[in-house]
Amino acid sequence: MPELNAGGEASPRPGPGGGALQVRAFRWWFFSQVLSASGSMTQAVAQSWLVLQATHSAFLLSLIATATFAPLLAGGAYAGSVVDRFDRRLVLVFTQSSYFVLGSALGGLALAGTLPVGGLFAFAFVNGLVSAFDMPARQVLVVELVGPTRTANAISLNEVVINSSRVLGPAAGAVLLATLGAAACFLFNAASYLPPLAVVLVILHRRGALGLLAARPGRLGGPGAGGPRRGRGQGPRAKATNGGVREGLAFAWQHRAVRYALAMAVAAGMLYNMGSTLPLVAARVFHLGAGAYGAMVSAFGGGAVAGALVAGRGPSWPSARRVRALGALTGATVCLDALSPAVAGFFAGLAVAGFLSIWFIALANALVQLRTGPALRGRVMGLWSMALPGTTPLTSLLVGGVATWAGGSSGARAGFGLSGAALLVTVALGWRSLGDS
Question: What CATH number should be reported for the domain holding residue 120?
């Protein structure tokens, strides 16, 4: 009898690459996420533009990111414990509905001309609070939709969503902002959350009708479906408990491969925070304008999409050795690219860094999820959200401090290369712990 997944259908026999898009519920979820992630980027464009136009302050502009990511850093672990206590789909109904309400309220205030700068910061903070619950719930839902054998492929496809939205969202935001104004960007973002909300409601309805899942979260489609296999050096098993934050913290610390994967995610976060590094490289190192900065982001994004697709074609069980090797290659590539004397070489290095880094981070994410038992998966993925992107407010300050301290073109190169150096250090520290297959 074929295994049933959380979408309510028989899971087709997976090939070497996992085949997550073969699962109809995940396919619906995937395409709805492309739309909603692009909507988020569209709102971010309008939000940043309004703050800059109202304040003319680069410092206040940077605080928008702080307001957005601070709740992830402060509350990610607690939010993960909530995801472990409740049905992930019910959590997502709450988060997608909240995003819709917040986007609609922003659009309405902007249309009425009564949206103060302080209101933009308040909305950014509340959005961050919702994201603290949304991110771990979304990541755990993927495992429940497709099952462990397709998790690596599904997570890689999620990276395609993220990097596609970095292209589609700003483009849509620029057009809407120039033609219809900021309110249209906010309302477009609000509407973009209706498709994923509908997908989750359909999945909930099918679950209720067919009785596929137990009320307790973390149970997959069949007996033993959620239990990751144990390998050498994998560490302790997660206990089937609905306890608090400390169990998740203890598991992540005791499980050495998970611990170092989280540390590597923090280091990689400095690379993905390109708004703090690439404008400096474009202006101070190569003496180019805003167009070159945009082209640099596109070069990285193009490589990242290719890396995500390659990651999805790999083994269904990601090895810690492969994560270790890709982390080291990514760090070395970033460091070498930071030293590039020619702009063409820098662009090529960005594409390679995007390719390797997304391949690495997709496998690291899958490793963390699959080596964590279902009862603790929400809490551990809450920690992942704290690491990436939750530490962005702190790592942005670190990158900016290094660039300011070194000064000029050397500071710009050092700020960009810092993530590569941090990745190499974390790989070196976790070399033995990440040595199991």
Answer: 1.20.1250.20
Instruction: Report whether pLDDT(433) > 50.
Output: yes
Q: How far apart are CA 37 and CA 239, in angstroms?
A: 34
List, in order, residues 6 or more apart from 75 with CB less than 8 Å away: 129, 132
- Answer yes or no: is 230 within a domain: no
Closest CA to 189 of 202, 176, 203, 201: 176
**CATH number of domain containing 264:** 1.20.1250
Domain enclosing residue 359, as ranges: 245-429
Question: In this predicted model, what pLDDT tens digit does every residue of 213-268 receive, in sequence order?
Answer: 333 444 433 333 334 444 444 444 444 444 578 888 999 999 999 999 999 999 99
Q: In 235-391, where does DSSP find H-type helix? A: 245-254, 256-272, 278-280, 290-312, 320-338, 343-370, 377-387
What does the buried/exposed string (b/e) look like for 60-89 if buried means 16 or more CB atoms within 10 Å of the residue's CB? ebbbbbbbbbbbbbbbbbebbbbbbebbbb
Contact 56, 66 (CB under 8 A): no
Q: How does DSSP assign 85-108, residue by residue?
A: HS-HHHHHHHHHHHHHHHHHHHHH
- Per-residue pLDDT of 164-222, as tens digits, reads 787 777 778 878 888 899 999 999 999 999 999 999 999 887 765 334 333 344 443 33
Q: Do residues 321 and 434 make contact, with C-beta atoms less than 8 angstroms apart?
A: yes
| b (16+ CB within 10 A) / e for 373-389 | bbbbbbbbbbbbbbbbb
**10 φ, ψ to 5°?**
-70, 135
Domain boundary among 167, 191, 210: 210
Q: Are residues 192 and 130 in the same domain?
A: yes
User: How many domains does the chain fold into?
Assistant: 2
Q: Which residues pair with 10 in a beta bridge?
A: 4
Q: How far apart are CA 395 and CA 389, in angstroms?
A: 10
